[in-house]
């Protein structure tokens, strides 16, 4: 029986799977999709190449797992930021500020190479379902503000936030962008009087 490096087999397997996910994230950020294959991922994770297939059937399965992990981490961080924020307008501000700050911290960087992956349609459907779950805090907040058709307006608000994310990724100061996004969503364009 092979030696395990954890108190239980389940913890050992979890640690190895996590090592493969983190290695893939690093490779995606360093060299994009071209740098990700079972050999390079296992080398980066300090595992034998055959270990890859103990956890993933294909490169697509690995990329989907990385995306799911990124979505879940993002969701946990946003929910933690919103904990205890009661007023819907305050929640909207916190949600926008956290999104721009997390983007500036590089937590959205993994999305670009993953978007370039040519995944099977079922994988894309799974990822879109997960992405839709990330809209829940925004939809809840907009509904709590009393906006009719909150799902539709959450989609529009997400478009404004996505534009803000792009501005932060291009080097604009995250708090200034957050202020502009909040103003755009709550007041509209700052038109001259």
From TrEMBL:
<feature type="domain" description="HTH tetR-type">
    <location>
        <begin position="14"/>
        <end position="74"/>
    </location>
</feature>
<protein>
    <submittedName>
        <fullName>TetR/AcrR family transcriptional regulator</fullName>
    </submittedName>
</protein>
<feature type="DNA-binding region" description="H-T-H motif">
    <location>
        <begin position="37"/>
        <end position="56"/>
    </location>
</feature>
<keyword id="KW-0238">DNA-binding</keyword>
<dbReference type="InterPro" id="IPR050109">
    <property type="entry name" value="HTH-type_TetR-like_transc_reg"/>
</dbReference>
<dbReference type="InterPro" id="IPR009057">
    <property type="entry name" value="Homeodomain-like_sf"/>
</dbReference>
<dbReference type="GO" id="GO:0003700">
    <property type="term" value="F:DNA-binding transcription factor activity"/>
</dbReference>
<dbReference type="Pfam" id="PF00440">
    <property type="entry name" value="TetR_N"/>
</dbReference>
<dbReference type="GO" id="GO:0000976">
    <property type="term" value="F:transcription cis-regulatory region binding"/>
</dbReference>
<dbReference type="InterPro" id="IPR001647">
    <property type="entry name" value="HTH_TetR"/>
</dbReference>
